[in-house]
């Protein structure tokens, strides 16, 4: 990849199972998940932005652009990805791709972008997403800015919200990671997940 992608942190979810609020602000091992995500993604990307709906000021401490969905009614992760693609087209036209990750994954891999890009190059596809064990993670992926109008049409004209239906149209490569001993795409959705993540972080500190 000649040019690093823009890193898109998807923090637009409603966090219903956590009782609301921003899951990215949950503290794991003394650092918020967002701090962990930013630390992992910053070296892998040309720059970073946050996709979040509601008051953008709550992410002001990151000093990153905060981009809301342009598709109404919490249309899901594809709307966040479209918002990221649109931001790049308007503000960083020299960047060809967006690498997206959820804002609730505290253990993302440090080689994420390189392996996603290698997977799509090997498969000769335009898109790539991550898989750990038997689980695909369609929101952890690389997205060409050149596909943004096609994605806009799918969302706003077709009403398509399922990522894997849209990616299948264009060809999507899979980059694999082991799910053990720690799934790098473990995401925090419930208080039980917070406790599990704390145990992993404690093991990290002790290793």
Short description:
The chain has 207 residues and is an alpha/beta fold. The protein has a single domain (6-206), classed as Spore Coat Polysaccharide Biosynthesis Protein SpsA, Chain A (Alpha-Beta Complex), CATH 3.90.550.10. It has helices at residues 33-41, 77-91, 112-123, 148-156, 163-170, 191-206; strands at residues 6-10, 27-28, 31-32, 47-51, 66-67, 97-102, 127-132, 135-144, 172-177.
Describe this structure in words.
The strands form two sheets. A seven-stranded mixed β-sheet has the order 5-4-1-6-8-7-9, sandwiched between helices. It has a two-stranded antiparallel sheet with strand order 2-3. With 207 residues, the chain is α/β, with parallel strands linked by helices. It has helices at residues 33-41, 77-91, 112-123, 148-156, 163-170, 191-206; strands at residues 6-10, 27-28, 31-32, 47-51, 66-67, 97-102, 127-132, 135-144, 172-177. Strand 7 and strand 8 form a beta hairpin. The chain has one domain: Alpha-Beta Complex (Spore Coat Polysaccharide Biosynthesis Protein SpsA, Chain A). It has six helices and nine strands; from the N terminus they run βββαββαβαββααβα. The longest helix has 16 residues, at 191-206. The chain is globular and about 50 Å long. Helix 2 runs antiparallel to helix 4.
What is the secondary structure topology, with strand pairs?
Blueprint lengths: L5 E5 L16 E2 L2 E2 H9 L5 E5 L14 E2 L9 H15 L5 E6 L9 H12 L3 E6 L2 E10 L3 H9 L6 H8 L1 E6 L13 H16 L1
Parallel strand pairs: 1-4, 1-6, 4-5, 7-9
Antiparallel strand pairs: 2-3, 6-8, 7-8
Helix pairs in contact: 2-4
